[in-house]
């Protein structure tokens, strides 16, 4: 944790970027519902910006030695809140099981893994369910898919919408895979 004149500071650049991500959620929702032709693209840009700040804040925290306990707590919360908000808006806009099923799987996985990490932390084994490479790939594919879906009208005649759906299903598969990786790592503790 960064020290300033003998005191720990929580207002680090990475933490500010994480707080910005959280603050962007209501802005994102309002922009999504604006009755203008550009609102879908603007919402997608806000979502993509949030995804980029997720990567940047983690990079800066490591590079600048500004990792904090607050940041470690808020970072995954900010990600999950933004993804859940985007998926909820997309489920309404697309109004199809084709989108509802992966949205439910992704949100359910996030809740399950968060609960698993919390429980593992209580038993002193949090490190065994740290973010994996599969989890990072899942997040990247998921962000690209959601951005593509947000940027386009839910018209299945556009190849970009089909590609975004395909990527969302790839992200859903990676979501289940990464959850199984975490559950496998936690299984020795869970079966006691």
Please, could you describe this protein's structure?
This protein has a single domain, classed as Up-down Bundle (Four Helix Bundle (Hemerythrin (Met), subunit A)), CATH 1.20.120. 78% of the residues lie in helices and 2% in strands. The chain has six helices and two strands. It has helices spanning 13-33, 39-63, 69-94, 97-122, 133-151, 159-190, and strands at 3-4, 7-8. The chain has a two-stranded antiparallel sheet with strand order 1-2. A hairpin with a 2-residue loop joins strand 1 and strand 2. Helix 5 (133-151) packs antiparallel against helix 6 (159-190). The radius of gyration is 18 Å and the shape is globular. The chain starts with a strand and ends with a helix. Residues 1-7 have low confidence and may be disordered.
The share of residues in helices is: over 70%
Helix tally equals 6
Give me the CATH fold name.
Four Helix Bundle (Hemerythrin (Met), subunit A)
Topology as a string of helices (H) and strands (E): EEHHHHHH
Instruction: Count the beta strands.
Output: 2
- Shape by Cα distribution: globular
Strand order of the largest sheet: 1-2
**Strand portion, in percent?**
under 5%
Please identify the top-level CATH class: Mainly Alpha
Give the tally of structural domains.
1
- How is the biggest beta sheet arranged? 2 strands, antiparallel
Q: Please mark out the parts with pLDDT under 50 across 5 or more consecutive residues, or reply none.
A: 1-7
